[in-house]
Amino acid sequence: MSENALSRSLRLSLVRRDDEVRAELHLRRRILRYVPAVGPPEFILRIHKIADGDIGLHLETGDHRIEARIAALAVICVYIPFQIQNTTPESLAQETSLLICPLSGCYNGYIPQRIKKRGADMEKIKKNFGFGFMRLPMKDGEIDTEETKRMVDAFLDAGFNYFDTAHGYLEGKRELALKECLTSRYKREEYILTDKLTMTYFNKQEDIRPFFESQLEACGVEYFDFYLMHSQSKDTFEHFKKCRAYETALELKKEGKIHHFGISFHDKAEVLEEILKEYPQIEVVQIQFNYLDYEDPAVQSRKCYEVCRRYNKPVIVMEPVKGGNLVNLPEDAAKILDNLNGGSAASYAVRFAASFDGVMMVLSGMSNIEQMEDNLSYMKEFRALDDTEMAAVKAVAEVFNSKHMIACTACRYCVEGCPKHISIPDLFACMNAKTVFHDWNADCYYNDVHTINNGKASDCIRCGKCEKVCPQHLPIRKLLEKVAKEFEKKAD
Length: 492
Fold this sequence. Notes:
The chain has 492 residues and is of the alpha/beta class.
């Protein structure tokens, strides 16, 4: 049996509440019992089903592992970690107590009253796939609300109910579109809604509440199921702290206007850990996670995911297809996936992200009904990637890495503040199309589409505003120089 299949059958997890750690045993998605444990979760502890109905326990910290086998029918493993630092295998075994205690009546679905549920909204989430309102269909420069309504209807009809937006997506127009296409047409209990607090919309603590209330009004709701501190990094986190944004959001949670509090994150794993240590009240973490960024030293998808797991924070995945880069594959990369058993390029990217333990939700920013239908076709009855598929996406990542593409996800945060109105993501897309995909139309798009009413790459005044807001931490100014050199060659 695969690890993913085992984890769905039987799972033990850590739940941290301030300085208290609780162990929860899940059997077929039912919590049987939990017991308090002492100390921070500086280790990985897994429990899984093995032969003859027994339970196998796996404890890992650093380079050291403990394996144990326990009779399954009437026991639960209780672990009490002490100091698990600078250990040897021998001392680790001595310093970690494994106690066995009987469980009576638990296999009839008994759940002790002292177990605190994560919240009603968590339980209302129907599936692990969400509709991100970042890349909606456009028509004549505006959101195509009729197409968006069709997409919303298809999404809900298929049994999904999680929606994600932010005011910074097209300067608030996505929130208004969400109201028109979703909240004004469906009952509040039929959907889960996430919004975010973005740094550019507040300069002091007193700005936050009015902005938050304007978001509720724009979205047409009285509360948000999830509210995230948007695009957290080392720099943005300092601004949020200075303005007591986290504290304000937690006050709003107490008032019932926010049901769950979390962050979206773009930085190195060590920064994420600092934030989670300082604010243990964080309930969920949204990270960029895809098979191309999994081992990327700049994005650090894997390392950030591992931090979330250590702190037992459910993960929300953004950019599973990396802004479309994992859909429009180079020919030699596409052949790798074509040799599998069918499925779109997007399906392997989205399923990759959803295959990891602890991933609560995978978001997709779909731009038309066709993309929606494709995503629904494989996420309605989700199946994790098998070993062959995992090997294939790893090979695709290696192809990408060999081509040195500009790793832009087209979030367009850089565009809004550009004094020269340079459509930076579009120019980077032209560059990738020409240098990686050898698309002979790239010059046409550069000259006749993307710069006809906007600035050229050579118009950049190197103010650096774009780089300050880039979630990918791209050296945009240097890259624009390369774009200008490639597309603005002077005739001899």
